[in-house]
Predict the 3D structure of the following.
Amino acid sequence: MYEQELAATAKAMVAPGKGILAADESYGTANKRFEQLGIPTTEEMRRAYREMLFTAPGIGDFFSGVILFDETIRQSTKDGTPFTKVLSNAGIIPGIKLDEGAKPLAKAPGETVTEGLDGLRDRIAEYYKMGARFAKWRAVITIGDGIPSNRCLKINAHALARYAALCQEGGLTPIVEPEVLMDGDHTLERSYAVHDEVLKTVFDELYIQGIELDQMILKPSMVIPGEKSLQQASVEDVARWTVKCLRERVPAAVPGCAFLSGGQSDELATAHLNAMNALFKDQLPWQLTFSYGRALQQAAMQTWNGQDENVAAAQKELHHRAQFNSAAALGQYQPEMEKIAV
Ligand code: 13P
């Protein structure tokens, strides 16, 4: 019933030079980031922070969509305009986080399964009515001694596909996000091998459950050595290995891959995306763009620091990172741009 709308939304989400702002931090995550900066962890502060982000002048030139959290999609600006309307007016599609977080997987120390499937059909219907047109579900895969297990990959892929099927039935274009964490000391090669297995398992499950690939977006992590690995990789190596992995495993019918930043510094996340597009753009069947949380928001949140008088400066920080990542999505980012834009 929604096929055309779902496909059009997917295409718009990864339109050339556009990417997605992930602003769907749950209460816990948002409060943790606020606490680190000494910002009060109240509902009003979370609302004021999101208002700062969503009303930043000009961001509609770079963001196709913004992912919201349940609390946020129900909130408005101080003058009473719903956030969904603020975004739509700026030409940005509102999206919604549907998962309820990664919880310990039974009998699997160190591994998690993402929850949130119960009652999901009704939640999707409610969010659609509120104006959401796409959604996100994040599965979390940890690399460690003897993990990830096959069982963990299968269970998470199964849940991702069940979520994606419900989204397509209910009119929300699903972002399918299997994140392989950077935590640990694993090598680039091990990261590649795990990403390869994860993506294979996910697309097998999407096929089994009848997901229309032209009506979804993949949100992958990049193939990067563990943050504690003694052998870090060059920007070009990360670009090459990530693109190789995606080419092996992501069907051409998928309109685009929008990466998460996963704890990379904001400049590195931009440089990696840029290298992939600068080196390979013309040879790829799908768009490669960004769906960053931390790598888009870090500088803006620090500058804002909970103070009204910092709103304009913080919005400028967000605008810079949005602009640089938009350039990276086209393979046109230059690190010198960072120095010029102050
Ligand atoms: P990061 O870019 O901070 O990893 O967040 C993206 C996201 O949406 C994780 O689910």
